[in-house]
Specification:
Length: about 325
């Protein structure tokens, strides 16, 4: 007698009887002003000032990282231009810079990155220049300078239109995530314990945290949800007889390569070398399957208005289909 784990049979619901509620797609005046302010920053000018640095200023700094008083390899950097308050570098740097003037040097303790990633050390920061960003006046002249519109009112109206469409597209993403969450919660999808244990062990081993019981429980829950999601989506792919075409694969490949900062051709070659092309097809199939059944779900906003997801979905040109099971 041989006992093996098998994929569970997933009984799918009638998607037309499911209702998903998403937040209202409301564009406020503050949303519009925030976008206009961000646009204005692109046209701002930097002016050297003889005062203490504050959030929003740009400083030129030198950094030196040390552990136990000794400079670490690669721990020195010079003439870095940095926006105070942006929190884009080392923890503690922004708080240290506030109040310093050109010529000041200060040391703070932080968790280091780079070659000493994860270790705690001291960082010397020397301020060389403090510059204030001067923003242009937000008026009709600015609208002409920064856009194709002649008046600020026209620029704001266009910004409101773009923000409204963006928020509606966010509703689609929210509805997709909420539907998947609801299906995983509502449906009985058993997961083989050995499969979970193997993945959890591999994950914790890679982090070197096998003895962390609290973290193990957290990873166990994440792995179970992930496996349930794969079983569920594969069941939908099968039930809906989903196929993907070359255009869909190419679009997904390009988006994925951009996230990794790689040329699409290089990213595709790496996938092929690693034998992960079938995994790519499966991922695109699952995404398409969920989008397909989402179209049959009743999606409403909190005000009770029906959300037309089909009107937001870009149309993909037809191409030769690829069997999702290949």
């Amino acid at each position: 007698t041989v006992e093996v784990d098998v994929r569970p049979e997933v009984t799918l619901p009638d998607f037309s009887k499911i209702t998903i509620e998403v937040p209202d797609a409301v564009v406020t005046d503050s949303d519009i002003d925030e976008q206009i302010d961000e646009l204005a920053k692109r046209f701002g000018t930097l002016t050297t000032v003889e005062r203490a640095a504050k959030d929003g200023d740009f400083v030129t700094i030198d950094l030196m990282a040390k552990i136990n008083g000794e400079e670490i390899d690669g721990g020195k950097a010079s003439d870095i231009s940095y926006e105070v308050g942006s929190n884009r570098m080392i923890d503690g740097l922004d708080a240290t810079l506030v109040g310093l003037v050109a010529g000041d040097t200060k040391t703070f303790n932080t968790q280091l990155v780079g070659q000493a990633d994860g270790e705690t050390g001291d960082v010397d920061v020397a301020v060389k220049v403090v510059k204030e960003r001067i923003l242009p006046e937000i008026d009709d002249a600015f609208a002409k300078l920064a856009s194709e519109f002649d008046t600020l009112a026209e620029l704001k109206a266009d910004t409101a239109t773009r923000l409204e469409r963006l928020k509606k597209m966010e509703q689609g993403a929210q509805a997709r995530d909420l539907l998947l969450e609801k299906l995983i919660t509502d449906l009985d999808i058993p997961v083989p314990d050995k499969l979970v244990a193997d993945e959890v062990h591999q994950h914790l081993e890679g982090e070197g945290r096998q003895e962390d019981a609290e973290h193990r429980a957290e990873v166990d829950g994440q792995v179970r949800t992930s496996i349930k999601s794969d079983f569920l989506l594969d069941a939908i792919v099968k039930a809906e007889e989903v196929q993907v075409n070359e255009v869909e694969l190419t679009e997904y490949l390009i988006r994925s390569s951009q996230r990794y900062g790689m040329p699409p051709e290089q990213f595709a070659q790496q996938l092929q070398d690693a034998g992960q092309i079938s995994q790519l097809v499966a991922e695109v199939s699952r995404t398409k399957a969920l989008a397909g059944v989402l179209g049959r779900v009743n999606v409403v906003d909190k005000s009770g208005n029906k959300v037309d997801l089909e009107a937001l979905r870009p149309q993909t040109p037809p191409a030769a289909p690829i069997d999702s099971e290949e």
